[in-house]
Amino acid sequence: MNKDPVPLNKKEKISGTEYIKQEFIVGHRGNSRIDAYLAHRLSKTSRNKVQQAIKEGRVFLNGKIPKASQKVEYGDIIQYFSPPPLEKYLPADLSIQILYEDKDILAVSKPSGMSMHPGPGHKGDTLADGIVHYLIQKGFPEDVTPGTVHRLDLPTSGIVLAGKHKEAQQFLGLQFEKREVKKEYLALVWKIPKIKKGWIDAPMDKSHLDRFRWKVDPRGKEAFTFYEVLQEYPCFSLVRAVPKTGRTHQIRVHLDYLGHPILGDPLYGKENYHLAHNQIPGLFPNIRLCLHAERLTFRHPVNHRFFTIVASLPEDFRTIINQIQKFSF
To answer: In the chain, count of helices (H) and strands (E)?
Structure first.
């Protein structure tokens, strides 16, 4: 009987985040479902967690993202990417902008380029580290956690909401899970859309060419984004985007699909590729991703009334707007 070989483990850094890559070659447990197979091989990982990893595009069977029910066969190669273990918080005075605070919730403004949580290459300089420091200074115990109930991508700026106690975190988190929170973003996009406002109805799935990008795919999961042009410039537009669903990179992928990628996006849009390679005179190649989480509307965890928090555009975003007003190509 052929035994399953010992997995090959190594670290792989993707977009600044280090994942632990484990590679398995299927042996005697062929003809098993891949989720059951991995749950067996990863003794400390449940089947539900394996299924979640498959949904997130962190599992590959012979180079392709499988379904959880797909059977594995002898000789198949499986790659499993697990996130790095959570690092301990290093409280740091990062002068984080407080947008709103009461005894139950805290809303802060995350700068572009700041990581949400500690990890390889990010210790003592993350939003979580800054929030923990702030809470300790306010009298919370030293083992306090940041209590954030959602996340923003590294290059995205804007509102991040946190609960100050378990009940608030659960109440707020459930609203995000049920898509009851209205999230409004501002995006500076290339060119001017012909249709000034409307819905983008475009299902999304992981890209099979680049496992850390997403794409529009009719076979993917439903994804809806409302957009509206707020301001037009010679070669760009300021757009409000309101995602109805919460797919990874949804606004970035949908606006690129519309033909108007977000300025400074390192993953999407041919214009940004040329910009990054210094092929567009008059614009700096290292422009930040021009996507800002401007407004959140949700129910307060105590009085259950609708509550709206607003974060104005940060200075670096406003500077780019001033720059592009004079740009043409």
So the answer is: 7, 15
In Å, what is the CA distance from 35 to each residue of 40, 51, 71, 268? 9, 6, 9, 31
Q: pLDDT (tens digit, 9 = 90+) per residue, 74-86?
A: 999 999 988 766 6
Q: Supply 91's token pair.
A: 């409280």
Which of 227, 250, 251, 254 shows the shortest CA–CA distance to 239? 227
Distance CA 245, CA 183 (A): 10
44's tokens:
């400390």
CA distance 85 to 82: 9
| 28 vs 32: CA distance, rounded Å | 10
**What residue ranges of the chain have pLDDT lower than 70?**
1-18, 84-87, 328-329
pLDDT digits (tens, 9 = 90+) for 2-50: 445 444 455 554 445 567 888 999 887 778 899 999 988 887 788 888 9
Find the catalytic residue in 153, 205, 210, 217: 153
Answer yes or no: 153 catalytic. Answer: yes
Q: What is the fold, at CATH topology level, of the domain defined by 182-324?
A: Pseudouridine synthase (3.30.2350)
Domain 8-82 has CATH 3.30.1360.30: no
Q: State how far the alpha carbon of 32 is from the alpha carbons of 4, 35, 38, 57, 286, in Å.
A: 13, 8, 10, 20, 48
The CATH code for residues 97-177 is 3.30.2350.10
